[in-house]
């Protein structure tokens, strides 16, 4: 257990250090919200993909792979499609226009792009974004508590509070740059851990050549790319639904905030290949973790939920414990937290920036100075953090069997 805690302490220490370095560069509202448009393609690509995945990748997609088997690989196809459209078809034009309008938020861009003559667009967009971001952050806090509970045996509420205090601290200190820099580090942790786990687990199996037969014996539908029952109209509809998951990238404001913040269109042209490769590796590996976990931990007639938790979301932690020594288990706790924290940090800064810039500075107090706006944005980040944590804790108490 000591080895696990050592790895987590090192991980949290790196996040705090990056947040401290970023705080030294925050001098204005633009610095706090978009990092002064200074991101390189490496930082932008890793940051965009890490923040776009969230806990869904390490808990949800791995669990889906365990539940459904080979048909889950269609999600990988859909993710590549969504990321490809975002980076190859939308990114350059979006960057060009946001630079033209000098936009620092997605809503700022929309108001300029559609030549809004009233404040209705800003009000509706900012209010809607704030409400749903609050809910999404709360869901990630819930996943944080579950991660600590699953990997370390902590009390759920203790894990949720500790994890969230860390991410809120470096966000409040360093704003967007802290989120982007920590996202790159966290994305690298996610990439290494996700690619390494199924490879090592596969090589450690004495009968790895019989995985296909073993899965077929558990449930024939697990090895059919169309799912149980084969090529049917219903299964085709399910496959299309899984592929459409990738469309989420086309409407994720925290992802497009990275495109506003990237240094130039040339950086986008280089970053798009990094984003595609990152997506392919982490998504394919996540599904493979689920498939291997189903083969290793279940038998014919045994529902995966009974062994691997609700929706098989514990398959990652089970496979890590099965494959690696305690020191590396701590690294995988960090990987799960990376997926969660990269999303939380980005959403916090984005929502606070929208309320400060799009509502207060543009509508209520246009005379607000740049330095005042930066200070106000930090304060609103604290408010959003407190509200999100309060919502997550309230829901966990009101619905313990959620």
Would you write up a description of this structure?
This protein starts with a helix and ends with a helix. It has 16 helices and no strands. The chain is mostly helical.
Q: How do the helices and strands line up, and which of them pair or pack?
A:
Elements: H1 2-23, H2 29-34, H3 41-53, H4 55-68, H5 73-101, H6 106-113, H7 120-152, H8 156-204, H9 211-218, H10 233-243, H11 253-261, H12 265-297, H13 304-308, H14 315-323, H15 326-364, H16 370-398
Compact overview of the structure:
By secondary structure, the chain is an all-alpha fold. The protein has helices spanning 2-23, 29-34, 41-53, 55-68, 73-101, 106-113, 120-152, 156-204, 211-218, 233-243, 253-261, 265-297, 304-308, 315-323, 326-364, 370-398.
Summarize this structure as a short list of keywords or feature phrases.
402 residues, mainly alpha, 16 helices, 79% helix
Give the N-to-C terminal Cα separation: 29 Å
Instruction: Say how many strands there are.
Output: 0
Approximate strand percentage: under 5%
Low-confidence stretches: none
What characteristic shape results from the CA principal axes? globular
Portion in helices: over 70%
Overall mean pLDDT: 87
Alpha-carbon Rg, integer? 21 Å
Sheet having the most strands? none
In N-to-C order, the SSE pattern is HHHHHHHHHHHHHHHH
């Amino acid at each position: 257990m000591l080895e696990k805690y050592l790895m987590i302490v090192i991980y949290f220490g790196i996040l705090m250090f990056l947040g401290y370095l970023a705080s030294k560069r925050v001098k204005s509202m633009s610095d706090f919200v978009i990092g002064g448009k200074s991101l390189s393609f490496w930082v932008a690509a890793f940051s965009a993909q890490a923040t776009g995945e969230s806990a869904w990748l390490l808990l949800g997609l791995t669990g889906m792979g365990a539940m459904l088997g080979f048909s889950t690989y269609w999600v990988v196809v859909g993710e590549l499609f969504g990321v490809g459209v975002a980076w190859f078809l939308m990114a350059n034009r979006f960057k060009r226009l946001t630079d033209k309008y000098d936009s620092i938020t997605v809503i700022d861009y929309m108001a300029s792009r559609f030549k809004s003559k009233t404040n209705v667009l800003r009000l509706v967009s900012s209010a809607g974004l704030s409400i749903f971001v609050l809910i999404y952050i709360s869901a990630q806090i819930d996943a944080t508590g579950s991660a600590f509970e699953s990997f370390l045996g902590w009390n759920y509420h203790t894990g949720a509070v500790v994890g969230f205090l860390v991410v809120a601290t470096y966000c409040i200190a360093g704003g967007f740059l802290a989120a982007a820099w920590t996202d790159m580090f966290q994305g690298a942790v996610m990439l290494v851990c996700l690619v390494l786990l199924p490879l090592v687990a596969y090589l450690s199996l004495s009968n790895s050549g019989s995985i296909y037969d073993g899965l077929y014996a558990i449930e024939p539908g697990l090895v059919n790319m169309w799912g149980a029952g084969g090529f049917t109209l219903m299964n085709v509809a399910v496959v299309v639904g899984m592929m459409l998951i990738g469309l989420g990238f086309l409407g994720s404001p925290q992802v497009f905030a990275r495109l506003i913040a990237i240094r130039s269109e040339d950086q986008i042209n280089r970053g798009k290949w990094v984003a595609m490769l990152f997506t392919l590796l982490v998504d394919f590996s996540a599904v493979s973790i689920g498939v291997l976990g189903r083969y290793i931990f279940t038998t014919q007639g045994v529902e995966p939920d009974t062994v691997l938790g609700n929706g098989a979301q514990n398959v990652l932690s089970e496979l890590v414990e099965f494959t690696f020594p305690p020191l590396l288990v701590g690294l995988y706790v960090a990987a799960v937290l990376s997926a969660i924290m990269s999303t939380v940090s980005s959403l916090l800064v984005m929502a606070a920036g929208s309320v400060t810039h799009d509502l207060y500075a543009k509508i209520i107090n246009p005379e607000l100075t740049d330095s005042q706006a930066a200070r106000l944005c930090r304060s609103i980040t604290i408010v959003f953090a407190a509200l999100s944590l309060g919502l997550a804790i309230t829901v966990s108490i009101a619905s313990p069997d959620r």
